[in-house]
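Today's session is about reading a structure prediction critically. Students often jump straight to the picture, but the first step is always the sequence itself: look for stretches that repeat, for charged clusters, for runs of hydrophobic residues. Only then move on to the predicted structure, which in these notes is written as discrete structure tokens rather than atom positions. Here is the chain we will use throughout the hour.
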Amino acid sequence: MPSPGRITGLRVPGGPGVRVDTYVYSGYTVPSFYDSMIAKVIVHARTRELAIARMKRALEAMVIEGIKTTIPLHLKIMDDPRFRAGDISTSFMEYFLARTDRKNGREAVAGGARRV
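Below is the predicted structure for this chain, in token form.
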């Protein structure tokens, strides 16, 4: 889960087909009461496959130090076979988190919360 705190290092990806919208910078303190979306990474490419590959590279290049982020979660989503195939719906995250919990030996808890 994302977290508040001081960002001690920040490197955003760039290049053709990659855009990052953010308001944070190295040294910025994310307050306790904050919008958890501190940055938005946007990519485009000719095909879904190329766009997913570009997003993976962008996420791997993005560095936000000092706080927890959802970058690892998004990297796992990029590798999910259903996501890659475009077999998604509004229930995708429910499926994905349940599958991830089973894969990691964690027990899913009713109401969408997870026991770690």
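Discussion point for the tutorial: The chain has a mean pLDDT of 88.
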